[in-house]
Amino acid sequence: MSQTNLPPAPLSAARWLRPALVLGLLVCCALYGYLLSRDLSLLLVLGAPLVALVALLGVRQPALLTVALLGITWGYISEVLVKFYGVPSVAKTLVVLLVALVFRQRFLVPGGQLRTHPLLWWMLGYLLVVAAGLWYAVDPDRTWLMVIDFAKELLLLFVVLNTLTSERWLERGVWVMLLVGGVLGALTLYQEATHSYSNNLGGFARSSVGAIAEGVSNRARAGGPTSEPNAFGQQMLVLVPIGLWAALHGRTLWGRAVAGLATFACLGGAALSFSRGTYVGFIVLTGLLALHMRLNWRYLLALPLLLYAISLAPPEVRARFSTLTTMLPDGQRLAGERDASLDRREIEMLMAFYMFADHPIVGVGADNYRARFSEYVTAFGSDVDTYERNAHSYYLEIAAEHGAIGLIAVGGIMLFTVGAFRRARRQFAAIGDQRMAELASALAIGFASYAVTAIFLHGDYSRFLWLQVDLAAACALIAAHAYQRAMARDDLTAAAGAAPATMPA
After folding, report:
1. CA atoms of 133 and 412, how far apart (whole Å)
2. How high does pLDDT run on average in the chain?
3. pLDDT band at 374 (very low <50, low <70, confident <90, very high)
4. What's the burial of 418, exposed, middle or buried (CB within 10 Å: 0-12/13-18/19+)?
5. Where residue 179 falls among pLDDT bands split at 50, 70, 90?
């Protein structure tokens, strides 16, 4: 039988992929060689291949870039690179790239879909509240900058919801935030141990000098990458319950040891900020952990770590802690002479209340408290300097700048965040995933401590709040999907057990 002449078989993917990769590599090398021959900045020449590599990794696994973005944002890394090294904003680049990758997944990949959560719509509503100030603010340019900043936070929530879609990736995101915080805390501890307060360690351990307590003045206060001690204390305190969770529930002994060291460093950073608001938040955090110990005795193992950390605290920390009595209504009688900084804060908070009383519905516009502070403090006859100041209370700042509508929007976001953590904890516990249930509890306790410290600090660094909102929404969706999968498996198992056995013919 004669063979039939068949057309040649088409090249398989494996046969043409290797030559295509070689050709692409040659083209990239030629292009890079051309760039090296031109008079271009060293930053561009070195950054071009890095950007290409990041884009390639993002196409392969967008969640990896989101985890990196969480660490960069929580550590204020992008801002430090811009301020001290002139590097273009890494965070903005990653957000734009990730948004593009999410839409690619939705429209170019079969079966792709966008994930949403009620918190996304509450955040969008708050963005509209902020943007409304463009019409009535005395200084709309300030408001416009706030609109842009919060739009970035909304995009980050959208990215987190659509990339951190599994328990493992959520854990990795939390771990990166903890490790970044641990490094920042370790830099602060090193600075304290060596008394090298003038060395900002690359911009990540910036400090300021201020009075700590009666007889203790001109003491360096740790400010971390933000240079703001109160914000740095918030930033470190939120990570403490997360670190305790990682130390008790880490997958390996090495991981638990690293988590313990990171928690110790975060505690040290929070203490050396000498922020009274942080100390109050720590008291609340300790109380919530004590209540949680009734549900999980393993957290009792963290007590030696906390006691050891307190025993190593310098005497200035205890002196600063004792000044908390001046924050009581009769603090003047208890402390003899009230802290001048507290007097200034009372006036700043009072001006915020007056602004809210004058504009109870929509406020004075985003970031316009500072623009109108001198007007109000002059009108009410205070002897405080009339230069721009902050409200020193996030909630009073929201009331002054956005009125009752803003309070409803932000209050709704915070209540939904707490509800998301609680719902996630119950659903993880219902399917027997106690490890993830404990993570949801740790995140909720950290969020509660932040909510308390926000009473005493303005919203210039509210990104730490919005990142926790992002984690709450992602955690709630992951828990809901895990619960649905478990219920579906149980239904299939029950149906299989109830099916009658078939007799052979």
Report:
1. 20
2. 83
3. confident
4. middle
5. very high
Share of the chain above pLDDT 70, in %: 74
Interior CA angle at 234 toward 133 and 131, to 5°? 10
* Of the listed ranges 139-148, 257-266, 310-319, the one predicted with least confidence: 310-319
Residue 142 tokens read as: 């300030």
Asked whether residue 7 carries a pLDDT value surpassing 80, the answer given is: no
DSSP SS3 for 360:
coil
Beta-sheet pairing, 219-222 with 207-210: antiparallel
Global pTM reads 0.84
For 180-246, the three-class secondary structure string (H helix, E strand, C coil) is: HHHHHHHHHHHHHHHCCCCCCHHHCCCEEEECCECCECCEEEECHHHCCHHHHHHHHHHHHHHHHHH
CA neighbor of 346 nearest in space, from 303, 377, 370, 368: 377
The tokens of 182 are what? 């641990």
Two tokens, residue 217: 């003045």
Three-state SS at 165: coil
Mean per-residue pLDDT for 151-169?
94
Q: Which of 252, 108, 246 is nearest to 179 (CA)?
A: 246
Query: Is the Cα torsion angle 401, 403, 407, 409 positive or negative in sign?
Result: negative
The count of other CB atoms within 10 Å of the CB of residue 30 is 10
Beta bridge partners of 219: 210
Eight-state DSSP code of residue 324: G
Return the structure tokens found at 505.
Answer: 């013919």
- 393 CB burial (10 A radius; 0-12, 13-18, 19+): buried
Say what the alpha-carbon torsion angle 417, 421, 426, 431 is, to the nearest 10 degrees: 120
Average pLDDT over every residue of 327-350: 62
**β-bridge mates for residue 213, sequence order:** 216
Q: How far is CA 269 from CA 196, 231, 283, 373, in A?
A: 15, 11, 16, 32
Contact by Cβ (8 Å): 428, 434: yes
pLDDT tens per residue, range 245-291: 999 898 899 999 999 999 999 999 999 998 888 999 998 998 888 88
User: Among the ranges 104-118, 297-311, 378-392, 437-451, which has the highest mean pLDDT value?
Assistant: 437-451
Phi, psi for 382 (deg, rounded to 5): -80, 155
User: CA torsion, points 459, 180, 77, 126, in degrees to nearest 10?
Assistant: -30
What gap in Å lies between CA 197 and CA 140, rounded to an integer? 39
Q: Please give the structure tokens belonging to residue 290.
A: 């004590």
